[in-house]
């Protein structure tokens, strides 16, 4: 009979009680919401409906405004001058500084094309680093590919090479999405504390976090094929 009161059983009872309590709270909250709706008169319901319609209309207008500014697609801009204009008119911008001969830039292109369609709240651009010496100097871009992450006209963060993306060429679009979410340059709905590459065990490698201080500041090209 003593077995009935083992610590495990006791914990089980405590847990069951916790679950019951939280279920009760949720039910009470729902009941209160339903009651509130029941007690609303026609005018109040109409006002609620109007507010929802207004919010919907506003989000549609915002979407149209973004699309008119070139959001929703991943585009190449021809010159440094265009960069300043594009950055000025959008709150959130991701700009990929690339080089034709760097294979890793093509990998980045593929992921950015997908994310540009998904996150129309952000403008996704690419700029040839060799044609942008002034910007590369000013933004201290020493590694190709580099993403400059820009908010309100100011460069807030950089994704340099693939270091932050699990240090592999096989990183997923979700991993890059998470990294952009960390910089708050897109509306990210996942859990920032849980990077997608932590669960990518299929590659058979355990990713070790590299000390960023040893990586930043060195001048090198992240693609091993060229210098």
Question: What's the quick description here?
Answer:
One of its GO terms (cellular component) is midbody. Keywords: Cytoplasm, Cytoskeleton, Nucleus, Phosphoprotein. The protein is of the alpha/beta class.
Strand order of the largest sheet: 1-3-2-4-5
Q: Could you tell me the radius of gyration in angstroms? A: 25 Å
Predict the CATH topology of the domain at 74-183: Glutaredoxin
Q: How many helical stretches?
A: 7
Structural class: alpha/beta
Question: What separation lies between the terminal Cα atoms?
Answer: 76 Å
Instruction: State which percent range the strand residues make up.
Output: 5-15%
CATH homologous superfamily name of the domain at 74-183?
Glutaredoxin
Helices and strands, in order, run as HHEHEHEHEEHH
Number of strands: 5
Q: Could you say which overall geometry the principal axes of the C-alpha atoms support?
A: flat
Largest sheet: 5 strands, mixed
Determine the mean pLDDT: 86
Architecture of the domain at 74-183, according to CATH? Answer: 3-Layer(aba) Sandwich
- The poorly predicted ranges are 202-220
Domain Thioredoxin: 53-181
Subcellular location: Cytoplasm, Cytoskeleton, Microtubule organizing center, Centrosome; Midbody; Nucleus
Main location: cytoplasm
Keywords: Cytoplasm, Cytoskeleton, Nucleus, Phosphoprotein
